[in-house]
Write a structure and sequence with these properties.
With 271 residues, the chain is an alpha+beta fold. It has two domains: 6-144, Trna Endonuclease, Chain: A, domain 1 (3-Layer(aba) Sandwich); 147-268, Yope Regulator, Chain: A, CATH 3.30.1460. It is 32% helix and 30% strand. The protein has eight helices and twelve strands. The relative contact order is 0.11. The model has no long low-confidence stretch (mean pLDDT 85).
């Protein structure tokens, strides 16, 4: 049997930024959850994180480096993950020292963030392989894989404002309802739930400004979110999500009641 030959990442990529770009396009290979919308060199205060991504499993922050992981990169990852209020934080490198492995395991015991150390390898043909050196406890991994979003959404789809089509086979972490050119999304990830108002079209910025006037900040907590095609408003609801199955009734009640309140306010407006 022919032995597979691996090469150093620095032999394949001129700069670490080039590796970040390719990694951001292939996040599924890391096997850490459902993440999309990856941004490289993402602003975090006055610094830049290698990769920040969002998806059904929340917010992901990645720092990566060639060779052996050092404490400077670990420190950056810790800072960026906490400032971004991320759900998953990953340091990708080719080697890790024992003390860093112990430290990462301890973080998984005392933090709500899922911490990973992932070893990256590339063979002489340019093919990647990734290995989890440290990851959250197996119980969390099993829970994440076995609980489907459809289980959570099914009661909401049966009655009320957000009732409608059968639960989709794709098992999305959101449920949407349109009104006056705005889509109201009930959102759920492993760690939290929220409501997103998404504005599309050429006048999306102006429409969002008009909607903001309907929701005084002394009564509603929301964040302004930007993307190339959408203008969004995000209403955080609870720091409980899919993995908190014992609280699903509370999450459903809070999501639907707030969603219905937002819907009624927009419906009664002159938008």
């Amino acid at each position: 049997m022919k032995t597979q030959k691996f090469i150093k990442l620095s032999k394949r990529y001129i700069r670490e930024e080039n590796f970040s770009t390719e990694l951001a396009e292939n996040l599924g290979l890391l096997d850490v959850g459902d993440f999309e919308d990856a941004e490289t060199e993402s602003n975090v205060g006055t610094r830049k994180a290698d990769i920040v991504a969002t998806g059904n499993d929340g917010i992901l922050v990645i720092e990566n480096q060639f060779g052996k992981a050092d404490w400077d990169h670990w420190g950056r990852l810790e800072a960026y993950a906490r400032l971004k209020e991320s759900n998953v934080a990953i340091l990708v490198a080719e080697e890790f020292e024992e003390l860093m492995i112990v430290t990462c395991n301890l973080r998984n015991e005392d933090s709500k963030i899922d911490w990973y150390l992932i070893q990256a390898k590339v063979n002489e043909h340019g093919e990647f392989s990734f290995h989890h050196i440290v990851r959250p406890t197996i119980d969390l991994q099993t829970e994440r894989k076995n609980i489907k979003y459809s289980e959570f959404w099914e009661p909401i789809r049966k009655s009320g404002l957000f009732a409608g089509k059968p639960v989709p086979a794709r098992d999305e972490g959101w449920l949407g309802k349109g009104i006056k050119g705005i889509t109201i999304y009930l959102q759920l990830n492993n760690h939290a739930c929220s409501i997103l108002l998404s504005f599309q079209g050429d006048n999306r910025m102006q429409k969002r400004e008009r909607v903001i006037e309907l929701f005084p900040q002394d009564q509603f907590d929301y964040e302004i979110k930007e993307s190339p095609k959408f203008a969004n408003l995000l209403f955080p609801i609870l720091n409980k999500g899919k993995k908190d199955k014992d609280y699903w009734d509370e999450i459903r009640d809070k999501l639907t009641s707030t969603g219905e309140q937002i819907y009624e306010i927009i419906m009664k407006s002159d938008l």
